Amino acid sequence: EKRGDDVTRAVQAYYLLTAHKPKEARALVQAGADGRVYPSLLIAAVTDLILGERKRAADEIAALAEIRPGAAEALMLQSFVSREPLDIRAQIVGAMAAAPAAPEVYVRKAYDLLTSNRPKRMEEADVMLELARKADADNVDALIVTAALFMAQNRAEEAQPLLSRVLQLDPDAPDALVCMALNCSMLDKTREITDLLNRAMKISDELWNDVFVPKPLDYLTRVLKYRVPVMMSPDVLYPADSR
Protein backbone atom coordinates (compact mmCIF):
# COMPACT_ATOMS: atom_id res chain seq x y z
CA GLU A 1 0.00 0.00 0.00
CA LYS A 2 2.81 2.40 0.85
CA ARG A 3 4.44 1.75 -2.52
CA GLY A 4 1.14 2.55 -4.22
CA ASP A 5 1.04 5.86 -2.35
CA ASP A 6 4.61 6.60 -3.44
CA VAL A 7 3.75 5.85 -7.08
CA THR A 8 0.74 8.16 -6.84
CA ARG A 9 2.94 10.91 -5.42
CA ALA A 10 5.47 10.32 -8.21
CA VAL A 11 2.72 10.87 -10.79
CA GLN A 12 1.66 14.04 -8.97
CA ALA A 13 5.29 15.15 -8.90
CA TYR A 14 5.59 14.52 -12.63
CA TYR A 15 2.74 16.96 -13.24
CA LEU A 16 4.35 19.48 -10.89
CA LEU A 17 7.51 19.12 -12.95
CA THR A 18 5.62 19.75 -16.18
CA ALA A 19 4.15 22.83 -14.45
CA HIS A 20 7.73 24.07 -13.92
CA LYS A 21 7.81 23.49 -10.17
CA PRO A 22 10.89 21.28 -9.79
CA LYS A 23 11.45 22.07 -6.10
CA GLU A 24 7.90 21.11 -5.18
CA ALA A 25 8.16 17.97 -7.32
CA ARG A 26 11.41 16.99 -5.63
CA ALA A 27 9.96 17.40 -2.15
CA LEU A 28 6.96 15.24 -3.01
CA VAL A 29 9.06 12.21 -4.01
CA GLN A 30 11.58 12.36 -1.16
CA ALA A 31 10.05 9.49 0.83
CA GLY A 32 9.66 7.31 -2.25
CA ALA A 33 13.23 8.00 -3.36
CA ASP A 34 14.47 7.07 0.12
CA GLY A 35 12.55 3.80 -0.25
CA ARG A 36 14.03 3.15 -3.73
CA VAL A 37 10.63 3.33 -5.42
CA TYR A 38 11.51 3.47 -9.11
CA PRO A 39 9.28 6.31 -10.39
CA SER A 40 10.12 8.36 -7.30
CA LEU A 41 13.82 7.92 -8.01
CA LEU A 42 13.25 8.92 -11.63
CA ILE A 43 11.51 12.19 -10.75
CA ALA A 44 14.05 12.87 -8.00
CA ALA A 45 16.95 12.41 -10.43
CA VAL A 46 15.42 14.62 -13.11
CA THR A 47 14.58 17.42 -10.68
CA ASP A 48 18.00 17.24 -9.06
CA LEU A 49 19.64 17.59 -12.48
CA ILE A 50 17.48 20.63 -13.23
CA LEU A 51 18.29 22.17 -9.84
CA GLY A 52 22.02 21.53 -10.19
CA GLU A 53 22.22 18.81 -7.51
CA ARG A 54 24.39 16.54 -9.64
CA LYS A 55 25.92 14.45 -6.83
CA ARG A 56 22.52 13.55 -5.44
CA ALA A 57 21.20 12.93 -8.96
CA ALA A 58 24.11 10.59 -9.68
CA ASP A 59 23.26 8.45 -6.64
CA GLU A 60 19.60 8.27 -7.67
CA ILE A 61 20.50 7.40 -11.25
CA ALA A 62 22.82 4.64 -10.04
CA ALA A 63 19.88 3.18 -8.11
CA LEU A 64 17.65 3.40 -11.20
CA ALA A 65 20.25 1.53 -13.27
CA GLU A 66 20.51 -1.14 -10.58
CA ILE A 67 16.74 -1.69 -10.51
CA ARG A 68 16.23 -1.64 -14.29
CA PRO A 69 19.58 -2.17 -16.03
CA GLY A 70 19.30 -1.43 -19.73
CA ALA A 71 16.06 0.55 -19.43
CA ALA A 72 15.94 3.52 -21.81
CA GLU A 73 15.11 6.09 -19.14
CA ALA A 74 17.90 4.87 -16.84
CA LEU A 75 20.48 4.83 -19.63
CA MET A 76 19.46 8.29 -20.77
CA LEU A 77 19.82 9.72 -17.28
CA GLN A 78 23.14 7.93 -16.79
CA SER A 79 24.41 9.83 -19.82
CA PHE A 80 23.84 13.12 -17.97
CA VAL A 81 26.17 12.21 -15.09
CA SER A 82 28.79 9.99 -16.75
CA ARG A 83 32.20 11.60 -17.12
CA GLU A 84 33.71 9.63 -19.99
CA PRO A 85 32.57 10.62 -23.51
CA LEU A 86 32.65 7.00 -24.67
CA ASP A 87 30.37 5.97 -21.79
CA ILE A 88 27.98 8.82 -22.58
CA ARG A 89 27.76 7.84 -26.25
CA ALA A 90 27.25 4.16 -25.37
CA GLN A 91 24.46 5.03 -22.93
CA ILE A 92 22.69 7.23 -25.47
CA VAL A 93 22.98 4.55 -28.16
CA GLY A 94 21.64 2.01 -25.67
CA ALA A 95 18.68 4.25 -24.85
CA MET A 96 17.94 4.72 -28.55
CA ALA A 97 18.06 0.95 -29.09
CA ALA A 98 15.80 0.30 -26.09
CA ALA A 99 13.20 2.92 -27.10
CA PRO A 100 13.64 3.76 -30.80
CA ALA A 101 10.19 5.37 -31.07
CA ALA A 102 10.65 7.71 -28.10
CA PRO A 103 11.32 11.35 -29.03
CA GLU A 104 13.22 11.86 -25.77
CA VAL A 105 16.16 9.72 -26.90
CA TYR A 106 16.66 11.81 -30.04
CA VAL A 107 16.45 15.01 -28.01
CA ARG A 108 19.14 13.61 -25.70
CA LYS A 109 21.35 12.72 -28.68
CA ALA A 110 20.93 16.28 -29.96
CA TYR A 111 22.12 17.59 -26.57
CA ASP A 112 25.21 15.42 -26.80
CA LEU A 113 26.01 16.69 -30.28
CA LEU A 114 25.47 20.33 -29.31
CA THR A 115 27.90 20.07 -26.40
CA SER A 116 30.55 18.29 -28.48
CA ASN A 117 33.40 19.74 -30.52
CA ARG A 118 32.21 18.22 -33.78
CA PRO A 119 32.59 20.71 -36.65
CA LYS A 120 29.01 20.16 -37.89
CA ARG A 121 27.45 19.64 -34.47
CA MET A 122 24.57 22.08 -35.06
CA GLU A 123 23.59 20.52 -38.37
CA GLU A 124 23.80 17.00 -36.90
CA ALA A 125 21.78 18.05 -33.85
CA ASP A 126 19.15 19.53 -36.16
CA VAL A 127 18.74 16.09 -37.79
CA MET A 128 18.21 14.45 -34.38
CA LEU A 129 15.68 17.08 -33.36
CA GLU A 130 13.82 16.58 -36.62
CA LEU A 131 13.60 12.86 -35.83
CA ALA A 132 12.23 13.73 -32.39
CA ARG A 133 9.58 15.98 -33.94
CA LYS A 134 8.64 13.26 -36.41
CA ALA A 135 8.12 10.88 -33.48
CA ASP A 136 5.99 13.51 -31.71
CA ALA A 137 5.23 16.77 -33.50
CA ASP A 138 4.26 18.42 -30.22
CA ASN A 139 7.19 17.29 -28.09
CA VAL A 140 7.91 20.52 -26.23
CA ASP A 141 11.54 19.68 -25.48
CA ALA A 142 12.26 19.08 -29.16
CA LEU A 143 10.41 22.22 -30.24
CA ILE A 144 12.09 24.60 -27.83
CA VAL A 145 15.60 23.21 -28.30
CA THR A 146 15.11 23.41 -32.07
CA ALA A 147 14.03 27.04 -31.69
CA ALA A 148 17.07 27.77 -29.53
CA LEU A 149 19.32 26.08 -32.08
CA PHE A 150 17.81 28.12 -34.91
CA MET A 151 18.45 31.36 -33.04
CA ALA A 152 22.04 30.33 -32.33
CA GLN A 153 22.31 29.96 -36.12
CA ASN A 154 20.71 33.40 -36.64
CA ARG A 155 17.49 31.83 -37.98
CA ALA A 156 15.09 33.76 -35.76
CA GLU A 157 12.23 33.84 -38.28
CA GLU A 158 12.24 30.03 -38.50
CA ALA A 159 12.28 29.80 -34.71
CA GLN A 160 9.21 31.97 -34.17
CA PRO A 161 6.47 29.48 -35.21
CA LEU A 162 8.09 26.78 -33.09
CA LEU A 163 8.06 29.06 -30.06
CA SER A 164 4.46 30.05 -30.72
CA ARG A 165 3.53 26.37 -30.72
CA VAL A 166 5.43 25.75 -27.47
CA LEU A 167 3.56 28.58 -25.77
CA GLN A 168 0.26 27.20 -27.05
CA LEU A 169 1.10 23.83 -25.52
CA ASP A 170 2.72 25.21 -22.36
CA PRO A 171 1.84 28.89 -21.80
CA ASP A 172 3.73 29.05 -18.50
CA ALA A 173 7.03 27.60 -19.68
CA PRO A 174 9.55 30.13 -18.31
CA ASP A 175 12.31 29.03 -20.67
CA ALA A 176 9.96 29.48 -23.63
CA LEU A 177 8.99 32.97 -22.45
CA VAL A 178 12.66 33.96 -22.22
CA CYS A 179 13.27 32.34 -25.60
CA MET A 180 10.42 34.33 -27.13
CA ALA A 181 11.89 37.51 -25.63
CA LEU A 182 15.20 36.66 -27.29
CA ASN A 183 13.39 35.97 -30.55
CA CYS A 184 11.60 39.33 -30.35
CA SER A 185 14.93 41.03 -29.74
CA MET A 186 16.48 39.38 -32.79
CA LEU A 187 13.50 40.37 -34.94
CA ASP A 188 13.43 43.97 -33.59
CA LYS A 189 10.03 43.44 -31.93
CA THR A 190 11.08 45.03 -28.68
CA ARG A 191 7.66 46.02 -27.29
CA GLU A 192 6.92 42.59 -25.77
CA ILE A 193 10.33 41.80 -24.30
CA THR A 194 9.91 43.24 -20.80
CA ASP A 195 6.53 41.58 -20.31
CA LEU A 196 7.86 38.19 -21.45
CA LEU A 197 10.85 38.35 -19.10
CA ASN A 198 8.66 39.45 -16.18
CA ARG A 199 6.25 36.58 -16.79
CA ALA A 200 9.13 34.09 -16.83
CA MET A 201 10.54 35.51 -13.59
CA LYS A 202 7.18 35.20 -11.81
CA ILE A 203 7.04 31.51 -12.69
CA SER A 204 10.69 30.66 -11.98
CA ASP A 205 12.49 33.40 -10.09
CA GLU A 206 15.61 31.28 -9.53
CA LEU A 207 16.25 29.61 -12.88
CA TRP A 208 14.73 32.15 -15.30
CA ASN A 209 15.20 35.52 -13.62
CA ASP A 210 16.55 37.38 -16.64
CA VAL A 211 16.49 41.17 -16.48
CA PHE A 212 18.02 41.44 -19.94
CA VAL A 213 17.69 39.21 -22.99
CA PRO A 214 20.39 36.51 -22.96
CA LYS A 215 22.72 35.87 -25.87
CA PRO A 216 21.60 33.03 -28.17
CA LEU A 217 24.46 30.65 -27.32
CA ASP A 218 24.15 31.37 -23.59
CA TYR A 219 20.44 30.66 -23.78
CA LEU A 220 21.03 27.40 -25.66
CA THR A 221 23.43 26.23 -22.94
CA ARG A 222 20.88 27.02 -20.22
CA VAL A 223 17.93 25.38 -21.94
CA LEU A 224 19.91 22.15 -22.40
CA LYS A 225 20.36 22.01 -18.62
CA TYR A 226 16.73 22.86 -17.89
CA ARG A 227 15.04 20.56 -20.39
CA VAL A 228 16.00 17.15 -18.98
CA PRO A 229 13.84 14.70 -20.96
CA VAL A 230 11.47 12.63 -18.78
CA MET A 231 10.23 9.22 -19.91
CA MET A 232 7.10 8.14 -18.02
CA SER A 233 5.37 4.88 -18.98
CA PRO A 234 3.64 1.91 -17.29
CA ASP A 235 7.01 0.15 -17.13
CA VAL A 236 8.45 3.13 -15.27
CA LEU A 237 5.55 3.34 -12.84
CA TYR A 238 5.43 -0.40 -12.23
CA PRO A 239 8.76 -2.05 -13.13
CA ALA A 240 8.45 -5.82 -13.52
CA ASP A 241 10.58 -6.68 -10.52
CA SER A 242 8.38 -4.52 -8.26
CA ARG A 243 5.01 -5.95 -9.29
Description:
This protein is mainly α. It has two domains: 1-67; 121-226, Serine Threonine Protein Phosphatase 5, Tetratricopeptide repeat, CATH 1.25.40. The protein has 15 helices and no strands. It has helices at residues 2-18, 22-28, 30-34, 38-50, 54-67, 72-81, 85-98, 103-114, 121-135, 140-152, 156-169, 174-186, 193-203, 216-226, 234-237.
Which secondary structure elements does this structure contain, and how are they paired or packed?
Elements: H1 2-18, H2 22-28, H3 30-34, H4 38-50, H5 54-67, H6 72-81, H7 85-98, H8 103-114, H9 121-135, H10 140-152, H11 156-169, H12 174-186, H13 193-203, H14 216-226, H15 234-237
Features:
243 residues; mainly alpha; Serine Threonine Protein Phosphatase 5, Tetratricopeptide repeat; 2 domains; 15 helices; 0% strand
Category from helices, strands and their pairing: mainly alpha
CATH-defined topology of the largest domain:
Serine Threonine Protein Phosphatase 5, Tetratricopeptide repeat
CATH architecture tag of the largest domain: Alpha Horseshoe
Give the fraction of residues assigned to helices.
over 70%
Summarize the main sheet: none
Measured between the Cα atoms of the first and last residue, the distance is 12 Å
> Can you tell me the overall shape?
globular
Average pLDDT value?
94
Count the DSSP helices. 15
User: What does the radius of gyration come to?
Assistant: 18 Å
CATH superfamily of the largest domain: Tetratricopeptide repeat domain
The stretches of 5 or more residues where confidence is low (pLDDT under 50) are none
Q: Give the ordered list of helices and strands.
A: HHHHHHHHHHHHHHH
Topology, number of strands: 0
Number of domains: 2
